[in-house]
Amino acid sequence: MDIERAWDVHPQVSLRPEPFGAMLYHFGTRKLSFLKDRTLLSIVETLAVSPSVHAACKTVGVSDEDLPRFTAALEILERSAMLIERAS
Amino acid sequence: MTLLEAKPLAPAQPPSPGRLVDLFEYGLDAPICLTWELTYACNLSCVHCLSSSGRRDPRELSTDECKAVIDELERMQVFYVNIGGGEPTVRPDFWELVDYATAHKVGVKFSTNGIKITPEVARRLAASDYVDVQISLDGATAEVNDHVRGPGSYATAMRAMQNLADAGFTGFKISVVCTRQNIPQLDDFKAIADRLNAQLRLTRLRPSGRGADVWDELHPTAAQQRELYDWLVANGDNVLTGDSFFHLSAYGAALPGLNLCGAGRVVCLIDPIGDVYACPFAIHEEFLAGNVRSEGGFKKVWRDSELFTRLRKPQSGGACSSCPFFSTCKGGCMAAKFFTGLPLDGPDPECVRGFGEELLSQRDAASSIPKPDGDHSHRTERAQRKSTGPIALTLSVRGVERPPVSACAEDPLAGFSPAGPTHGANCSC
């Protein structure tokens, strides 16, 4: 995942906030995923209005130190087609 | 028991502090998935039916009431519902409700014996991204299947699956309840699924509904449980299980899936008359949380019912707490314990260490086994299907000027209408 590019939640994905973070369901693949914390949820929710993944992380206040951890989590979502690259 | 001596069990990994399943035990704002049995009516009489289905309940939710439930599920963001029954497709408004749900962003996966899956229906289903189909099949051969599901049911299911495959519907589910008779056929089931581009789903036989009557005869032996576990480990993510075998995780590594009893925490059941139960296998007043027809609807039942609140509190492992496998097995299935008359805070009747079997042999069967609530079974015996050849019918057309007069009409002038239609001649009995 190139974090300098713009991404978004896949149009067939529905996202539901929960006390522990959120659940995502992909109607195309019929797979369920979980976001284990609120910060990750905020990043995912901010993707649509950010010029890049990196920018979305900055907007919600992720430090450079924590960036690799969140990037890894986003890559897992990308592999299951929950996230999709979009034109910036 | 000799099980432990015969095959030492590897202790499961201790739970990590941030394990997601541990959070799920406290419940969610809305269920992850929800089973909704639309009708108790069914064309079959499977001997292990967990809802004792057969005859329609006259109090069944109307089309409008069902749509109101769907509206509520949409507001709660329930991603999809598992629709079952009974045989849901025999409801005249079934397709209307499926269309309504998908138009309101509530995905549908429905279970069927295949009776209504014609080539035309299959083509329609293949065209939708939001509908998934699950065909029930309890034997890889007609002999094994029809013994449980009734004469002709294998042919019906195979025809429906062929229609789906021909229509290009890939990845539909073939749902198998694992029994003593079909465990030797696991590879054959997989071959059928692979040939039809479908996905195999194996679930556990529960002693619920009519299943209680045949559980002793059908439930897998201890050796078969081990065989099933090894087979599931070998096939991994390619086979779905509805998380129903978490009690087998005490054999070694946990199986793929959530591995927890989701009753009232992440799953629940809405039955045909709107009653909400903790899970599809627990249709008994002990597990009844409320009704969608009551004020506040389903949402209030899910969030505030006394039963669900109780199920979301930390549960005592009772006799199982000291077991090294408790963190993954969690004492097994609540419904399986309940309907075999075992205490809820003890081992599962199919505990892989044999503790359940030990308790089963000690219980006083006559007095301690609760009966399921509500028997909707057909009142007649299931007949063997024979070909009788064509039946000659005489069709006639009757002039219909007014509705027929009910036999219960008490009005001495019922049916007599010198001028204009009668009124008040029908009753609902």
Please outline the helices and strands.
The complex is a heterodimer of chains A (88) and B (429).
Chain A: E1 7-9, E2 13-18, E3 21-26, E4 31-35, H1 38-46, H2 53-59, H3 67-79, E5 83-85
Antiparallel strand pairs in A: 1-5, 2-3, 3-4
Chain B: H1 3-6, H2 20-24, E1 33-39, H3 63-75, E2 80-85, H4 94-103, E3 107-112, H5 119-126, E4 131-136, H6 142-149, H7 153-166, E5 173-178, H8 186-195, E6 199-204, H9 211-218, H10 222-235, E7 269-270, E8 275-277, E9 288-291, H11 297-304, H12 306-311, H13 326-329, H14 334-338, H15 355-362, H16 365-368
Parallel strand pairs in B: 1-2, 1-7, 2-3, 3-4, 4-5, 5-6
Antiparallel strand pairs in B: 7-8, 8-9
Helix pairs in contact in B: 5-7
Explain briefly what this protein structure is.
The complex is a heterodimer of chains A (88) and B (429). With 88 residues, chain A is α+β, with helices and mostly antiparallel strands.
Description:
The complex is a heterodimer of chains A (88) and B (429). Chain A has helices spanning 38-46, 53-59, 67-79; strands at residues 7-9, 13-18, 21-26, 31-35, 83-85. Chain A is globular and about 35 Å long. Helices cover 33% and strands 26% of the residues of chain A. A three-stranded antiparallel β-sheet of chain A has the order 2-3-4, covered by helices on one side. Chain A has 88 residues and is α+β, with helices and mostly antiparallel strands. By secondary structure, chain B is α/β, with parallel strands linked by helices. Chain B is built from 16 helices and nine strands. Chain B has a nine-stranded mixed β-sheet. In chain B, helix 5 crosses helix 7. Chain B starts with a helix and ends in a 61-residue tail after the last helix. Chain A binds chain B through residues 12, 14, 16-20, 23, 25, 27-28, 30, 32, 34, 36, and chain B through 18, 20, 23, 26, 28-30, 32, 77, 79-80, 105, 107, 109, 129-130, 132, 171.
